[in-house]
Amino acid sequence: MTPQYTYDNKGRTVGVFIPIGQWKKITKKYKELETVEEDLPPTKEEILKSIKDGIHQAKLYQQGKIKLKTAQQLLDEL
């Protein structure tokens, strides 16, 4: 195995990178290490659904059926 370590600016180890081929071998052997769904990038279908939902919201706004948040309200939520 050839893991690569990442370090912070003080030289402390903060992460490990394992080549994908080796990761697949490890997760095949140890099922509990499989990547959780939250760590995966969105699928094409999820992206398209998100876009369709946004278009639907925009249409509802144009029809006066919903109110949108201001940019300041969105920033305040962060």
Assign a percent range to the helix content: 40-55%
The biggest sheet, with number of strands, parallel, antiparallel or mixed sense and barrel status, is: 2 strands, antiparallel
What would the principal axes of the Cα set say about the shape?
elongated
Whole-Å distance between the termini? 40 Å
Uncertain segments of ≥5 residues (pLDDT<50)? none
Q: Determine the mean pLDDT.
A: 86
| Tally of helical segments | 3
Order of helices and strands: EEHHH
Order of adjacent strands in the largest pleated sheet: 1-2
Class per helix and strand makeup: alpha+beta
Q: Kindly estimate the percentage of residues that lie in beta strands according to DSSP.
A: 5-15%
From the alpha carbons, calculate the radius of gyration and give it in angstroms.
21 Å
Give me the count of strands.
2
Protein described:
The chain has three helices and two strands; from the N terminus they run ββααα. The protein is of the alpha+beta class and 78 residues long. The protein has a two-stranded antiparallel sheet with strand order 1-2. A hairpin with a 5-residue loop joins β1 and β2. The model has no long low-confidence stretch (mean pLDDT 86).
Task: Throw out a few tags for this protein.
single chain; 78 residues; alpha+beta; two-stranded antiparallel sheet; 2 strands; elongated
Précis, in short:
The protein is α+β, with helices and mostly antiparallel strands and 78 residues long. 46% of the residues lie in helices and 12% in strands.
